[in-house]
Queue: 3 jobs
Job 1
Amino acid sequence: MENIYAALLLHKIGKEVNEHNIKSVVAAAGAHVDESKIKSLVASLKNVNIDKELETASLAVAAPAHAGAEKKEEAKPKEEKKAAAAEGLSALFG
């Protein structure tokens, strides 16, 4: 993951995303430099328009945030059901 972050940082500051630069950033951050993963990443990004990919990625990231809000809303009725069930049991043994 740190290799991807390094590539994004290099792209953001306008530096060339190549093996040497990624190695430098990862090493400067104090993370383990895995040369095979860096080579693979650089090869994968060879013909990729990073700006365009970031635009489409931001749309994909926004969708799960909405889904998380729905899960929170669903959690409340379950808590109410548990409380109602507990009240019913207390009426039996109360």
Note: The mean pLDDT is 81.
Job 2
Amino acid sequence: MKNCHFCTNNIKQVDYKNTEDIRRFLNTHARITGKRRSSVCAKHQRQLALAIKRARFLALLPFLAR
């Protein structure tokens, strides 16, 4: 089993302003990848989904891929 990206890098809270880090958890269609595919623990997957939604609302990330 792979380790969680946020746990291994000792990141306590997923920040919506860190778009470079968040963007790697989106697929080519700009959809949030699942927990199994991204190998993120459940706690950080919930934080990641909330951070992506906040970044989309503030136009830091796209809702759709072109």
Note: The mean pLDDT is 93.
Job 3
Amino acid sequence: MAKFLSSEHMEAATEALNADAAFQEAMASIDLGLQFNVTGGPDGDSDYYLKISDGSAALELGEMGDFDASVASDYESASAISQGELNVQMAFMTGKIKVGGNMAKVMMHQGLINEFARVSSGLDLEY
């Protein structure tokens, strides 16, 4: 079992995203980079990003040089979204996540973001 926000988590998520038919359909012909910043985790703050291009997805630890939007949250909110206990839209509307950058692109690809959350919630992770 991979630990949430670890390199093993990123590898498992990348594999699951690229193997999921609904996510593959949602990411077809999309070029998107999302930077995630999670504060207050058991191991401190964590940065990771989702890069979608050329029909494939990659989730990586670290900072993405050129991203379309950023998503900031505390560890509690990030883990609740990851476990499927908190809806992304509800998290945004209640201020549990803050989105910066190209909001139009985020809104345009909301279906893809929902699929990302759905696939993530199926991962076997330790929190």
Note: The longest strand covers residues 32-41.
